[in-house]
Amino acid sequence: MKALLPILIALPLGGALAAAPAPKYAVADIPAALREGAHAVIRADDEVVTVKSASRLVHTVHRVITVLDNAGDDLGRFGVSYDALRTLSYLRGAVYDANGRLLHQLRAAEIKDQGVGNDGVNFMTDVRVRYADLRQPQGPYTVEFDYEIVSDNALFYPDFQPQQDEGVAVQAASLRVSTPTALPLRYQERQLPAGAAGTHTTAGSQDIYEWQLANLAAIDDEEAAPPLTDRTPAVVLAPGSFEVQGHAGTAATWQGLGQWTYDLNAGRDQLPPATVAKVQALVKDLPDARARARCVYELLQGSTRYISVQLGLGGWQTFPASTVASSGYGDCKALSNYTRALLAAAGVPAYQALVGAGPDEADLRADFPSSQFNHVVLCAPLSTTGRPDTLWLECTSQTAAFGYMGSFTGNRHALLLTPEGGKLIATPRYGTAENRLVRRLDLFLDATGEATATARTLRTGQEQDLYAALLHELGPPDQKKYIVDHLRLPTFTLTKFNLAATSAGPLPVVVENLALTLPGFAPPSGKRVFINPNLLSRLPALPAQVGERQSEVWLPQASLHADTVRLHLPAGFHPEALPAPVQLSTAYGTYATQYATLPDGTIQYIRRLELKRARLPKTAYPGYLDFRRKINSADKAQVVLVKTES
Questions:
Q1: Are 355 and 397 in contact (CB under 8 A)?
Q2: SS3 for 517?
Q3: What is the pLDDT of residue 502?
Q4: Half-sphere exposure at residue 290, Cβ-oriented, CA atoms within 13 angstroms
Q5: DSSP per-residue string spanning 309-321
Q6: Over the Cα atoms of the chain, what is R_g?
């Protein structure tokens, strides 16, 4: 000890031991109201957008998230994408314990970097992702990330929406945008709480916009709720004037945005003479425009395949049609451009259209012109027998039905690209007349309670979308496995199954045939047998609302389900009691059932359920809950059979 004293005394004060960083982000500092119902809390989401010019902007983000339990663990890792037009300047991170003490500072070697694609779908892309994983074995813990993106793609400004997951609260968040006065900011405030509107100041030649959010409680995962992007506070940004790799344009109007995209691809629709001659030979005996278009579409589907191309400006500028003609592949832009050229050779004019695609994609915000699109389709305004007849084509699929958009691009708006600029138009609407499920089921019961059943189900429109994917993307064994996994029956064996595609006029149809054995289906109870004839169409009830409803009621798809069940009785049994008919008519839809004994002794059960497409206030949820409860109750109704006395 005496030998150590001179050494310690000789060291400068504070140099003997490095001072530990002061604790920060302690869990105890989170208000109790924010922890309630939350799996994670965003402690800070501070974002700065600096518009340098019409072609460049810088986006800087500081984000701190406290993970409270395992359900919030995904927020303990973070990734940011970049590409040829978006440079990642840095990515830094750290993780803290529940008391706010630093556990670990992210090292450069721990940051992973990988490309996106080159997998047969994203075949040509320069997009990469840099990501880090700071998850801990157990919570609570806090992660902190900082990064900066320099973007030379000023068509897209970043959006500000800190609350992007259910079960995540926000303690504090801020957005600051600085832009030259000559480049006015376009923005739209959505779902902001009272008093959170932005402020606008001017400093020299710069306009400064700022927003502050605080103490946002976690959003519950509610039944029949709109997409989360429509439910949490957001500020959406967009340019007026912009430039991408020397191509200048305006996004202030739909006409201007469509004009930029049209001009970017102008002149890239020239086909080789041999391809033109081939098309003209195929359609020469087809005077009707729709018939010529169908012939061209079948040629497209039989000779091309889809890949994704995201190479700099290639995310918006198409391959020339001649390239697709020689290679046989392209992305949505290239294939729709190629199809447009083929149709032109067949004497059918058509236009490309930008659309936000996806089964759960909400419609675009028509009152805020901006790039809200991720897909390109084709629109051909035909004139058939003197009447307007607009044809829509999905050009990326080898199996899509001619003229059918479905749940991927139907029931929304698209931006038509014309020589005069962009025009917002509606894609095809699919309602109860198109989205149908019609089933005939025969149920055969024997005296011991064993049963067999056969069912033929015809699905049209959006009701067939999933089954069309099963048919075209999976082999019979996997199709059968899917059906077995989704039949809500206690005990059964699937003895026969097949899917087949057909058509019903302009709509695609998938027909499903199956046969079942049902051991112990309806064992006798004394001299009576109780049977629920609704074997395959029971609609589950919804859980009761816990607490006050937060969201509107969103019913995104209209449909009609019609079931006819014939119950074939064993010898010596007759119906003692049939359920009373049910009739429901509501703002959410209609429901009806009826039972009858037919002359041949079989019992017929008819069920009809029509669901409406609607967006209703949150006060409508109790009524919707009651509607579903009554349907569930009626779907469980039983026929009572009694054995005839000998």
A1: no
A2: strand
A3: 87
A4: 15
A5: EESGGGGTSPPPH
A6: 31
pLDDT at 314: 59
Could you list the beta-strand ranges (E) of 493-633: 493-504, 507-518, 528-531, 553-555, 559-568, 573-577, 582-585, 589-597, 603-611, 614-616
| Beta-strand relationship, 168-180 and 40-53 | parallel
Cβ pair 212, 196 in contact under 8 A: yes
Cβ(350)–Cβ(339) under 8 Å?
yes
Phi, psi of 142 (to 5 degrees): -130, 135
Q: Pick the closest to residue 103 from 157, 19, 23 (CA basis).
A: 23
Respond yes or no on whether the N-terminal peptide bond of residue 180 is cis (omega within 30° of 0): no
| DSSP-H helix ranges across 130-179 | none
Strands 128-133 and 77-82: antiparallel
Residue 130, SS3? strand
Length of the chain: 646
Extract the residue ranges of the chain whose pLDDT is less than 50. 1-17, 118-122
pLDDT at 547: 87
What is the reported pLDDT for 384?
Answer: 58
CB neighbourhood size of 444 (10 A): 16
In the block, tokens 């400064």 appear at 208
- DSSP state for residue 535 in the 8-state scheme: -
CA–CA separation, 505 vs 408, rounded Å? 20
The string of pLDDT tens digits covering residues 412-430 is: 999 999 999 999 999 999 9
| Among 359, 354, 313, CA closest to 337 | 354
CA 400 – CA 64 distance, rounded (Å) = 45
The CA distance from 341 to 348, in Å, is: 9
Amino acid at 351: Y
- The secondary structure of 217-252, three-state, reads CCCCCCCCCCCHHHCCCEEEEECCEEEECCEEEECC
Rama region for 100: left / alpha / beta (φ>0; ψ in -120 to 50; rest): left
Q: How far apart are CA 34 and CA 173, in angstroms?
A: 14
Decide if 515 contacts 496 (C-beta within 8 A). yes
Q: Which of 297, 293, 559 is nearest to 407 (CA)?
A: 559
> Residue 393 contacts by C-beta under 8 Å, 6 or more apart in sequence?
293, 297, 336, 339, 350, 377, 378, 379, 380, 402, 403
Which residue, 164, 234, 226, is CA-closest to 192?
Answer: 234
Count of C-beta atoms within a 10 Å radius of residue 169: 25
* E strands in 290-374: 305-306, 309-310, 329-330, 351-355
Which distant-in-sequence residues (6+ apart) come within 8 Å of 447 by Cβ? 524, 570, 571, 572, 573
Instruction: Answer for the pair 610, 586: CB distance below 8 angstroms, yes or no.
Output: no
State pLDDT tens for residues 538-573: 999 998 888 899 999 999 999 999 999 999 999 999
